[in-house]
Amino acid sequence: MKKTLAVDMDEVIADPVKKMRSWYERDYGIWLSDEQIHGKDMKEAVPPEQSYIFHEYLNTPGFFRDLDVLPGAQDVLEKLNREYDLFIVSAAMEFPNSLKDKFDWLADHFPFITWHQICLCGSKSLVQTDILVDDRIRNFSRFYGRKILFAAHHNVFVKGYEKAIGWEGVASLLL
Amino acid sequence: MKKTLAVDMDEVIADPVKKMRSWYERDYGIWLSDEQIHGKDMKEAVPPEQSYIFHEYLNTPGFFRDLDVLPGAQDVLEKLNREYDLFIVSAAMEFPNSLKDKFDWLADHFPFITWHQICLCGSKSLVQTDILVDDRIRNFSRFYGRKILFAAHHNVFVKGYEKAIGWEGVASLLL
C-alpha cells in the first residue's frame, strides 16, 4: 500500500506572500522587503495598527484565485502523486471566501489532483497521514507521522525539524 | 484530554433528502415516497435515465444553504461540544459549489461550532478521530476509531455496525 502524504497549500505550493506584498504596497505605498519579513509573519512586519490588513486581504473573494505557483511544485507533486496516496490539506476555514477559489486554483494548476484528494479544514489536528509537508509547525503539534517543514520566510529561525528548502528539497527527501 | 469526535453533515445533522424530493417533484411531478427510497440511494430510486439529476441538484449553488436541521441535532451537538473535541467533517469536495453554503449553514444553525472545528474534504480517509458518526459505511473503511452508523433511509439494510437511531440514539451512546 502506498504511504499517505499530506501537502499544505499556502507558502508551500501557492504564493500568497507576493500578493500580500503587492496589495500592501497598493494600500500603504511600501513594498515589504525580504529583510523586513525575514523570520516574521507578515502582520509582525508592519506597524501594529496595520496588522489587521492581512486578514482582510486573505478573506477577500478572489485573493487566492490567481496566486502564483511556487517553483517546482507542479513537477514534483505530479511525481509524488504517482508514488504516494497524496492529499492537499489547507487550513482554509478561517477564510471562508477562499474555499471555492482554492478548489478552482488547484483544478487550474494541478489537474492531476482530483476532488477526492482535497481537504479544506479549520484545524489540521484531525488529519493523520504518514507524512505532512507544511510551513507551520503549529500544524505538527498533534500530528503523529513524519513532519517535513517547508522553508518559508517566517520559519527561518525554527529549528528541530526535518526541513525542505523548496520543491527540490522535498523531491530529494521523498522521491 | 477530551476524546475527539467527528460528525458528518448530510443526513446526520442536515436534511438534503427532503429538498432532493422536493426538487425532483418540481422537475418530474412525482414525490418519492418513503417506500420508494427505503434501503436505496436517491439515484437508485428513480429510472436510470433520471439518476444524474441528483448530482446536478447537489452542485447547484444554494442547494445546501437552507436545508432543514435534523431533529435533535442542535441540542445534542451543543452538549457533545462541551464533552468532546468536536469536528464537523463533510465529504463536500465533490460539490465545490456547496463549500461556502455549508460553512454559512453551520454558522446559522450551530453558532457554538467555530471555524476551527469544520473540515470539508474529498475522502474522509485522512481523518482520524476517536469517534466518527456517519451515515455512510464507505467513510469507515480506513477509519481506526469507534464507528457509529447514523440511521438513514439508505442504510436500513446495513448490518454489523454500532447504529444510532436519530440524535436521541447518539445521545444515549455518547452522553
Write a brief caption for the model.
Helices cover 31% and strands 17% of the residues of chain A. Chain A is α/β, with parallel strands linked by helices and 175 residues long.
Kindly list the characteristics that best describe this protein:
homodimer; 175 residues; alpha/beta; two-stranded antiparallel sheet
Ordered list of secondary-structure elements with their pairings:
The structure is a homodimer of 175-residue chains.
Chain A: E1 4-7, E2 14-15, H1 16-28, H2 34-37, H3 53-58, E3 68-69, H4 73-83, E4 85-90, H5 99-109, E5 118-121, E6 131-134, E7 146-150, E8 162-164, H6 166-174
Parallel strand pairs in A: 1-4, 1-6, 4-5, 6-7, 7-8
Antiparallel strand pairs in A: 2-3
Could you explain the architecture of this structure?
2 copies of one chain form a homodimer. Chain A has 6 helices and 8 strands; from the N terminus they run ββαααβαβαββββα. The first copy, chain A, has 175 residues and is of the alpha/beta class. Chain A has 2 domains: 4-15 and 67-174, Rossmann fold (3-Layer(aba) Sandwich); 16-58, no CATH class. A 6-stranded parallel β-sheet of chain A has the order 5-4-1-6-7-8. Chain A has a two-stranded antiparallel sheet with strand order 2-3. The radius of gyration of chain A is 16 Å and the shape is globular. The A-B interface holds A 4, 6, 87, 89, 93-94, 96-97, 99-100, 103-104, 114-123, 125-129 and B 4, 6, 87, 89, 93-94, 96-97, 99-100, 103-104, 114-123, 125-129.
